[in-house]
Specification:
Number of domains: 1
Strand order of the largest sheet: 6-5-4-9-12-15-3-16
Low-confidence stretches: 1-18, 20-50, 52-56
Strand content: 15-25%
Helix content: 25-40%
Radius of gyration: 19 Å
Mean pLDDT: 88
Distance between the termini: 30 Å
């Protein structure tokens, strides 16, 4: 439907074009790293596992390690009650959102709304409009003062316009209450960037410069899909936040407020020698995306913490994070029929990883789904962001055994 869309001077090209080069580079780096790991002595890579200085204690995270797992088979009338059940199992969200501004990070990936695998993109690799509508309704019912949907899209168009082109019912969203939309690929409606520091220094970045929408909010929600990722192993509530970094500062056209190109320099500095990434540590020398992306994901989530993680596992896809991954392996539709929500993104993503059929969310590099990359859930746990050990998570609702849907 929208295989080639022209928006305010920007062309959103057919799928596979925007990310193909990156995927090829990432796979090559992954293969080289995997080969090195097989033949090198263990001590050679000890430095890769160093923690940021003074990592936060996990003791305070115990109370956040609550995750709800609920059955939901469709995006129809059962969706809102199922999501509400998730929130009820967590003790309700009224105390979290009442009278507050809530930012909801969507997952629109490359902005190509053309059907994939014979299904709308909301049923495969993007946020489904029905989940956003159900969430917005429940937020206002719980007393939220304002809900702002945010995403960095590869388009110069306003986010509401992009969503409209994607067949989202934007008027239905705005009818819920005080709803705003912000394309956070650059300054957007703000006059300056917000400088958010990474507590305790971070793995790769000591701070991030972000659109003000990520600072001018009381509550941060990540609304993700249940997917694998070629460079990060899994892409769930934490990896979804990778996209809050503005294209204008962290993309291949960095330094230009009109920038729409992807975040190649974050994945690897190769070919981007003229681009300076704000607050990147001088000690970082690795150009391997499978080393960099997991650590950047953790740093972003430390700088801009997630208060409520929601993962749509009603329908999704396996084999990668989007249609561009077809060149790397077999892509197929999945239908786990679940919603997953939690107060801590590390714990929520750990449960989601187990639901996809991977028994150890803390697995080391080389073990699926982290066979080609470092495990950002483990790195996040080591940095004190949350608990990834399943035995220490307070799972409410369905047991993992009843919800498990193997992605391999």
């Amino acid at each position: 439907m929208f295989g080639r869309i022209r928006l305010a001077g920007t062309v959103m090209k057919g799928r596979g074009v925007n990310r193909r080069t990156f995927i090829q580079q990432a796979l090559a780096a992954s293969a080289a790293a995997a080969a090195s790991l097989k033949c090198a002595p263990n001590h050679l890579f000890a430095a890769d596992n160093l923690l940021p200085p003074n990592p936060l204690s996990l003791a305070g995270r115990r109370s956040e390690a609550k995750v709800a797992l609920v059955s939901c088979r469709s995006y129809g009338p059962e969706l809102r009650p199922a999501l509400e059940k998730c929130f009820d199992l967590l003790g309700g969200i009224g105390s979290l959102v009442k009278g507050k501004t809530v930012a909801v990070k969507l997952n629109l990936t490359n902005g190509d709304f053309m059907n994939f695998l014979g299904r709308p993109v909301g049923e495969t690799f993007m946020t489904h409009p029905a989940t956003a509508l159900a969430l917005g309704s429940l937020l206002f019912a719980a007393g939220a003062r304002r809900v702002r949907f945010v995403e960095s899209t590869p388009s110069r168009a306003a986010l509401a316009a992009t969503l409209t082109l994607g067949d989202w019912d934007v008027p239905a969203l705005t009818a819920l209450g005080k709803v705003e939309f912000e394309n956070t690929r650059n300054l957007g409606s703000g006059k300056s960037y917000s400088h958010l520091r990474v507590p305790d220094g971070g793995y790769m970045f000591s701070a991030f410069d972000l659109n003000q929408a990520y600072e001018q909010t009381d509550v941060m929600i990540s609304l993700a899909k249940l997917k694998l990722h070629l460079t990060a192993g899994v892409t769930l509530s934490m990896k979804n936040m990778f996209g809050i970094t503005p294209n204008s500062l962290y993309g291949s056209e960095a330094g230009n407020e009109e920038a729409t190109a992807g975040r190649g320099p974050l994945h690897s500095p190769r070919g981007s020698d003229n681009i300076h990434l704000p607050s990147l540590k001088e000690s970082i020398t690795s150009a391997d995306p499978t080393w960099r992306v997991p650590r950047i994901t953790v740093d972003v989530c430390a700088a801009r913490p997630i208060h409520l993680a929601i993962i749509d596992g009603i329908m999704a896809m396996t084999g990668g994070e989007g249609p561009w991954c077809q060149e790397a392996g077999r892509i197929k539709l999945t239908s786990p029929g679940v919603l997953i929500a939690g107060l801590n993104p590390v714990s929520t993503d750990a449960v989601a990883t187990a639901v996809m059929g991977y028994p150890d969310p803390r697995a080391a590099r080389g073990v699926k789904p982290f066979q080609d990359c470092d495990n950002h859930l483990l790195l996040a746990e080591q940095a004190g962001l949350g608990i990834a050990e399943l035995a220490s998570i307070d799972l409410r609702g369905l047991p993992i055994e009843k919800a498990r849907y193997p992605y391999d």
